[in-house]
Design a protein that fits this description.
Layout lengths: L1 H16 L6 H11 L8 H7 L2 H11 L11 E6 L8 H4 L26 H8 L4 H14 L7 E6 L8 H16 L10 E4 L6 H6 L2 E5 L12 H14 L25 H11 L7 H4 L1 H8 L7 E9 L2 E10 L4 E10 L13 E9 L19 H15 L5 E5 L5 H6 L3 E3 L2 E5 L2
Helix pairs in contact: 1-2, 7-8, 10-11
Length: 429
């Protein structure tokens, strides 16, 4: 096997030196047959054997599932331990359609999950240890050729906020420790948290949570058929504002007893739209990394686009750098003028807030540059400058705040921001 891997790498190096494109599967099949092997060498073994001087040019070409980091970050999903649904305290039972949890047929799974989802199976193998879940997943992504300098956590597993605060602190602290390699005594990592929150907003700020996903459930007794569900999903994708995004809950299809018969609903909806001559314009579809992987297109003429709208009684501004002709999104910024009703003292008295800043495309390591990619090319800086101008001249704000993860605070410090409470802030006067 070692001779086979060495031969594969030699062919890849020769092709690179000659400027030729290669089909990795053909090379692996041909080389395995040459050495009389019944199976091809594994991709992770090939990546691990690439010589150091060629890693920078070869590993990106060998990367498995490039979609994993096409949005500019490596997403690591982890699960908390199985715990009883808090609804039992009020209703005596869980929601009828909710799988998982200690009281279900999938008793070793977390609430609302079956234990057969990829994230669930990784969590079960790690016995729901947050440190091991993180280390195993990060190492797996690294072996597959992905850059893991920028990590976003998604904490899954029912109502996380219903768990004791001591466990929550332990869980999030271990996520941080798994990345840093140190053992800490406090919570200091910003994460994206997939939860059903109750009255725990202050605690979320304390542990640097930057995003909350709200789950709403309908009470209609009628189940969707596959056809009607695709139609509904398709309807959302058509009429969704181009500053929003659609996500779909995943249940392993062998465990579905009735209703939806297909698991790839987004793919089916996009195919239906193509048949009818319409296009999906949500954020996910328009991302530059997704467009490059799926359609092999890159932006040609990039310009700043501004969209203003009212949401939840407030003034929102969506700034983005896009190629309008090809409808490709490179980076976005969500700016809001804070209302007087805000409960955070840092946001009172004429303050604007940047709710999200994101530049898409394949991950570029921190403090590095790659002219063929879009991160670290100044798009984020330009978006922040325009947001500051709008906040000062149009909102009349004297201060601008940013919801920032711990890992991005140094970026904001370089452009004049300082830490105030959970936010990075800058005076505009």
């Amino acid at each position: 096997m070692m001779m086979t891997i060495a031969d594969v790498i030699k062919q890849l190096i020769d092709a690179h030196d000659e400027g030729k494109d290669v089909n990795l599967n053909k090379i692996k099949t041909r080389t395995a047959a040459k050495y009389g092997l019944s199976a091809q060498p594994r991709l992770v073994d090939i990546i691990a054997a690439v010589p150091p001087q060629y890693r920078k040019v070869l590993v990106p070409k060998l990367k498995a599932k490039p979609i994993r980091t096409a949005s500019g970050i490596a997403v690591v999903a982890v699960m908390c331990k199985p715990h009883r649904c808090p609804h039992i305290n009020f209703t005596g039972n869980i929601c009828v359609y909710c799988p998982g949890g200690p009281d279900s047929d999938f008793e070793y799974s977390t609430q609302s999950y079956t234990g057969y989802e990829p994230t669930s199976m990784r969590a079960i193998r790690a016995r729901y240890d947050p440190y091991l879940q993180t280390r195993h997943r990060v190492e797996q992504l690294k072996q597959l050729g992905h850059t893991i300098d920028k990590v976003e956590f998604i904490v899954m597993g029912g109502t996380f906020m219903a768990l004791p605060e001591e466990y929550r602190d332990y869980f999030i602290r271990n996520l941080h420790d798994a990345l840093s390699g140190h053992t800490s005594n406090n919570v200091a990592e910003a994460v994206n948290l997939l939860i059903v929150p109750e009255s725990c907003i202050i605690w979320m700020f304390t542990v640097k949570i930057t995003l909350v996903s709200l789950n709403f459930s309908g009470e209609s007794p009628d189940l969707f058929s596959s056809f009607s569900f695709i139609d509904g999903y398709f309807f959302k994708l058509i009429f969704l504002f181009n500053w929003g995004s659609v996500s779909c809950r995943d249940i392993p299809m062998p465990l579905v007893t009735s209703g939806v018969e297909h698991g790839n609903l987004r793919e089916l909806a996009l195919a239906r739209m193509k048949d009818l001559g319409t296009e999906c314009r949500d954020v996910r579809t328009r991302e530059v990394g997704i467009q490059e992987i799926h359609h092999k297109v890159r932006p040609y003429q990039v310009e700043l686009v501004r969209r203003d709208y009212v949401a939840n009684g407030g003034w929102e501004t969506f700034l983005s750098y896009e190629d309008p002709e090809q409808d490709i999104l490179i980076g976005l910024l969500r700016l809001r003028k804070c209302s007087e009703d805000t409960f955070r003292p840092e946001l009172k008295g004429g303050v604007s807030i940047v709710r999200e800043l994101h530049v898409y495309g394949s991950v570029v390591p921190v403090s590095s540059r790659d002219p063929s990619k879009f991160q670290h090319q100044g798009f984020g800086m330009l978006l922040m400058e325009e947001a500051e101008r709008i906040a000062k001249e149009e909102h009349g704000s004297w201060k601008i705040a940013v919801i920032s993860g711990v890992g991005t605070r140094d970026y904001y410090r370089k452009i004049g921001y300082g830490l105030e409470g959970p936010y990075m802030v800058k005076r505009l006067d």
